[in-house]
Design a protein that fits this description.
The complex is a heterodimer of chains A (114) and B (112).
Chain A lengths: L4 E3 L2 E4 L5 E6 L6 E7 L6 E7 L2 E4 L8 E4 L6 E5 L8 E8 L8 E2 L3 E5 L1
Parallel strand pairs in A: 2-11
Antiparallel strand pairs in A: 1-3, 3-8, 4-5, 4-9, 5-6, 7-8, 9-10, 9-11
Chain B lengths: L2 E3 L4 E5 L4 E3 L2 E3 L5 E7 L5 E7 L5 E3 L5 E5 L4 E6 L8 E8 L6 E2 L3 E6 L1
Parallel strand pairs in B: 2-12
Antiparallel strand pairs in B: 1-4, 3-9, 5-6, 5-10, 7-8, 8-9, 10-11, 10-12
Classes of the chains: A mainly beta (114), B mainly beta (112).
Chain lengths: 114, 112
Protein backbone atom coordinates (compact mmCIF):
# COMPACT_ATOMS: atom_id res chain seq x y z
CA UNK A 1 0.00 0.00 0.00
CA UNK A 2 0.91 3.65 -0.10
CA UNK A 3 1.71 3.86 3.58
CA UNK A 4 1.45 2.08 6.90
CA UNK A 5 -2.20 1.51 7.73
CA UNK A 6 -3.50 0.91 11.23
CA UNK A 7 -6.98 -0.10 12.32
CA UNK A 8 -9.08 0.78 14.07
CA UNK A 9 -8.12 4.45 14.39
CA UNK A 10 -10.00 4.68 17.68
CA UNK A 11 -10.97 1.99 20.15
CA UNK A 12 -12.84 2.33 23.41
CA UNK A 13 -12.65 -0.73 25.61
CA UNK A 14 -14.16 -1.51 28.97
CA UNK A 15 -11.66 -2.46 31.62
CA UNK A 16 -11.04 -6.19 31.44
CA UNK A 17 -11.91 -6.46 27.76
CA UNK A 18 -9.48 -7.91 25.23
CA UNK A 19 -8.50 -5.80 22.20
CA UNK A 20 -6.67 -6.45 18.94
CA UNK A 21 -4.94 -3.72 16.99
CA UNK A 22 -3.95 -4.26 13.39
CA UNK A 23 -1.02 -2.94 11.38
CA UNK A 24 -0.64 -3.22 7.61
CA UNK A 25 2.95 -2.28 6.79
CA UNK A 26 4.20 -0.99 3.48
CA UNK A 27 4.33 -3.88 1.04
CA UNK A 28 7.70 -5.60 1.05
CA UNK A 29 8.94 -4.03 4.24
CA UNK A 30 10.89 -6.56 6.27
CA UNK A 31 10.97 -4.78 9.61
CA UNK A 32 7.95 -3.87 11.70
CA UNK A 33 7.84 -2.05 15.02
CA UNK A 34 5.18 -1.32 17.62
CA UNK A 35 5.33 1.70 19.91
CA UNK A 36 3.12 2.96 22.73
CA UNK A 37 2.63 6.71 23.11
CA UNK A 38 0.99 7.93 26.28
CA UNK A 39 -0.61 11.36 26.28
CA UNK A 40 1.99 14.11 26.23
CA UNK A 41 4.92 11.74 25.98
CA UNK A 42 7.22 10.36 23.34
CA UNK A 43 6.61 6.94 21.82
CA UNK A 44 8.07 4.00 23.72
CA UNK A 45 9.27 0.84 22.03
CA UNK A 46 7.20 -2.28 22.51
CA UNK A 47 8.39 -4.91 20.06
CA UNK A 48 10.19 -5.53 16.75
CA UNK A 49 9.71 -8.08 13.98
CA UNK A 50 11.94 -9.02 11.11
CA UNK A 51 9.64 -10.82 8.70
CA UNK A 52 7.67 -13.23 10.90
CA UNK A 53 10.31 -13.47 13.61
CA UNK A 54 9.82 -11.43 16.74
CA UNK A 55 13.39 -10.42 17.48
CA UNK A 56 12.79 -8.10 20.40
CA UNK A 57 9.84 -7.94 22.75
CA UNK A 58 11.64 -6.33 25.62
CA UNK A 59 9.33 -3.31 25.64
CA UNK A 60 6.08 -5.18 26.18
CA UNK A 61 4.93 -3.94 29.59
CA UNK A 62 3.34 -7.15 30.80
CA UNK A 63 2.31 -10.63 29.73
CA UNK A 64 -1.09 -9.19 28.87
CA UNK A 65 0.53 -7.76 25.73
CA UNK A 66 1.13 -10.07 22.80
CA UNK A 67 2.16 -9.33 19.22
CA UNK A 68 2.32 -11.53 16.17
CA UNK A 69 3.17 -11.32 12.48
CA UNK A 70 2.53 -14.87 11.28
CA UNK A 71 3.12 -14.39 7.56
CA UNK A 72 5.67 -11.63 7.73
CA UNK A 73 3.32 -8.88 6.61
CA UNK A 74 0.27 -7.83 8.68
CA UNK A 75 0.85 -7.64 12.42
CA UNK A 76 -1.58 -7.71 15.32
CA UNK A 77 -0.98 -6.33 18.78
CA UNK A 78 -3.28 -7.93 21.32
CA UNK A 79 -3.92 -6.66 24.80
CA UNK A 80 -5.72 -8.95 27.19
CA UNK A 81 -7.75 -7.82 30.20
CA UNK A 82 -7.20 -4.16 29.42
CA UNK A 83 -6.53 -1.75 32.24
CA UNK A 84 -6.80 2.02 32.40
CA UNK A 85 -3.04 2.46 32.20
CA UNK A 86 -3.14 0.81 28.77
CA UNK A 87 -4.86 3.92 27.39
CA UNK A 88 -2.49 5.35 24.80
CA UNK A 89 -1.86 5.69 21.10
CA UNK A 90 -0.31 2.58 19.63
CA UNK A 91 1.95 3.31 16.69
CA UNK A 92 3.20 0.88 14.09
CA UNK A 93 6.20 1.50 11.84
CA UNK A 94 7.81 -0.44 9.04
CA UNK A 95 11.07 -0.21 7.17
CA UNK A 96 12.71 -2.09 4.36
CA UNK A 97 15.82 -3.25 6.24
CA UNK A 98 16.19 -2.31 9.89
CA UNK A 99 16.63 1.32 10.78
CA UNK A 100 19.46 2.35 8.52
CA UNK A 101 16.68 3.12 6.11
CA UNK A 102 13.71 5.28 6.88
CA UNK A 103 11.01 3.89 9.12
CA UNK A 104 7.49 4.91 8.11
CA UNK A 105 4.89 5.33 10.81
CA UNK A 106 1.16 4.77 10.68
CA UNK A 107 -1.32 7.23 12.15
CA UNK A 108 -1.79 5.06 15.18
CA UNK A 109 -4.68 3.55 17.09
CA UNK A 110 -5.94 5.57 20.04
CA UNK A 111 -7.04 3.14 22.76
CA UNK A 112 -9.15 4.43 25.61
CA UNK A 113 -9.91 2.05 28.46
CA UNK A 114 -12.90 3.07 30.56
CA UNK B 1 21.25 5.54 32.43
CA UNK B 2 20.77 5.69 28.68
CA UNK B 3 18.37 8.45 27.74
CA UNK B 4 17.26 11.10 25.29
CA UNK B 5 16.36 14.52 26.65
CA UNK B 6 14.59 17.43 25.06
CA UNK B 7 14.87 20.21 27.64
CA UNK B 8 12.11 22.38 26.20
CA UNK B 9 8.57 21.06 26.66
CA UNK B 10 6.96 23.94 24.78
CA UNK B 11 8.40 26.68 22.59
CA UNK B 12 6.57 29.61 21.04
CA UNK B 13 8.07 31.60 18.18
CA UNK B 14 6.76 34.21 15.81
CA UNK B 15 6.29 33.35 12.18
CA UNK B 16 9.47 34.21 10.28
CA UNK B 17 11.69 33.90 13.33
CA UNK B 18 14.48 31.37 13.62
CA UNK B 19 14.07 28.17 15.60
CA UNK B 20 16.34 25.82 17.51
CA UNK B 21 15.07 22.72 19.30
CA UNK B 22 17.50 21.01 21.62
CA UNK B 23 18.24 17.32 21.94
CA UNK B 24 20.81 15.56 24.08
CA UNK B 25 21.46 11.87 24.36
CA UNK B 26 23.31 9.68 26.78
CA UNK B 27 24.84 6.60 25.22
CA UNK B 28 28.26 5.05 25.21
CA UNK B 29 28.80 5.32 21.49
CA UNK B 30 27.35 7.56 18.81
CA UNK B 31 23.97 6.17 17.89
CA UNK B 32 21.97 6.85 14.79
CA UNK B 33 20.10 10.14 15.32
CA UNK B 34 16.74 11.30 14.02
CA UNK B 35 14.22 14.10 14.20
CA UNK B 36 10.53 13.38 13.67
CA UNK B 37 7.54 15.72 13.52
CA UNK B 38 4.02 14.80 14.59
CA UNK B 39 1.03 16.92 13.71
CA UNK B 40 -2.23 16.42 15.64
CA UNK B 41 -3.84 13.13 14.73
CA UNK B 42 -1.03 12.25 12.37
CA UNK B 43 1.74 9.72 12.40
CA UNK B 44 5.38 10.57 12.81
CA UNK B 45 7.15 12.02 9.79
CA UNK B 46 10.91 11.87 9.43
CA UNK B 47 12.55 15.28 9.08
CA UNK B 48 16.16 14.18 8.92
CA UNK B 49 18.66 11.62 10.15
CA UNK B 50 22.34 11.31 10.94
CA UNK B 51 24.33 8.12 10.62
CA UNK B 52 27.90 9.29 9.96
CA UNK B 53 29.92 11.78 7.95
CA UNK B 54 29.10 15.46 7.69
CA UNK B 55 27.81 16.60 11.06
CA UNK B 56 25.41 19.13 9.54
CA UNK B 57 22.50 17.35 7.92
CA UNK B 58 19.74 18.82 5.80
CA UNK B 59 16.19 17.61 5.96
CA UNK B 60 12.80 18.28 4.53
CA UNK B 61 10.76 21.45 4.97
CA UNK B 62 13.90 23.58 5.35
CA UNK B 63 15.07 21.95 8.59
CA UNK B 64 18.66 21.13 9.43
CA UNK B 65 20.39 19.57 12.43
CA UNK B 66 23.94 19.56 13.70
CA UNK B 67 25.55 16.64 15.49
CA UNK B 68 28.08 17.65 18.15
CA UNK B 69 29.86 14.66 19.58
CA UNK B 70 31.53 16.62 22.37
CA UNK B 71 28.16 17.79 23.65
CA UNK B 72 26.19 14.62 22.81
CA UNK B 73 23.72 16.90 21.09
CA UNK B 74 21.70 16.88 17.90
CA UNK B 75 19.85 20.19 17.77
CA UNK B 76 17.27 20.96 15.12
CA UNK B 77 17.20 24.36 13.44
CA UNK B 78 15.18 26.31 10.93
CA UNK B 79 16.08 29.84 9.84
CA UNK B 80 12.51 31.05 9.27
CA UNK B 81 9.50 29.34 10.81
CA UNK B 82 6.17 29.03 8.99
CA UNK B 83 2.78 28.74 10.68
CA UNK B 84 2.47 25.21 9.29
CA UNK B 85 5.50 24.15 11.34
CA UNK B 86 3.41 24.17 14.52
CA UNK B 87 3.54 20.56 15.74
CA UNK B 88 5.25 18.22 18.19
CA UNK B 89 8.89 17.46 17.47
CA UNK B 90 10.63 14.33 18.65
CA UNK B 91 14.32 13.59 18.74
CA UNK B 92 15.11 9.89 18.53
CA UNK B 93 18.20 7.74 18.75
CA UNK B 94 18.84 4.21 17.63
CA UNK B 95 21.66 2.94 19.80
CA UNK B 96 21.73 -0.63 18.60
CA UNK B 97 20.52 -0.37 15.01
CA UNK B 98 17.29 -2.07 15.88
CA UNK B 99 14.78 0.28 17.48
CA UNK B 100 14.20 3.91 18.33
CA UNK B 101 14.39 5.56 21.71
CA UNK B 102 12.39 8.78 21.58
CA UNK B 103 12.75 11.91 23.63
CA UNK B 104 9.70 13.36 25.41
CA UNK B 105 9.03 15.84 22.61
CA UNK B 106 8.90 19.62 22.22
CA UNK B 107 5.66 21.28 21.26
CA UNK B 108 6.13 24.19 18.88
CA UNK B 109 3.59 26.99 18.68
CA UNK B 110 3.86 29.67 15.99
CA UNK B 111 2.45 33.16 16.46
CA UNK B 112 1.17 35.01 13.40
Amino acid sequence: GAGVSQSPRYKVAKRGQDVALRCDPISGHVSLFWYQQALGQGPEFLTYFQNEAQLDKSGLPSDRFFAERPEGSVSTLKIQRTQQEDSAVYLCASSSTGLDTEAFFGQGTRLTVV
Amino acid sequence: AQSVTQPDIHITVSEGASLELRCNYSYGATPYLFWYVQSPGQGLQLLLKYFSGDTLVQGIKGFEAEFKRSQSSFNLRKPSVHWSDAAEYFCAVDPYGQNFVFGPGTRLSVLP
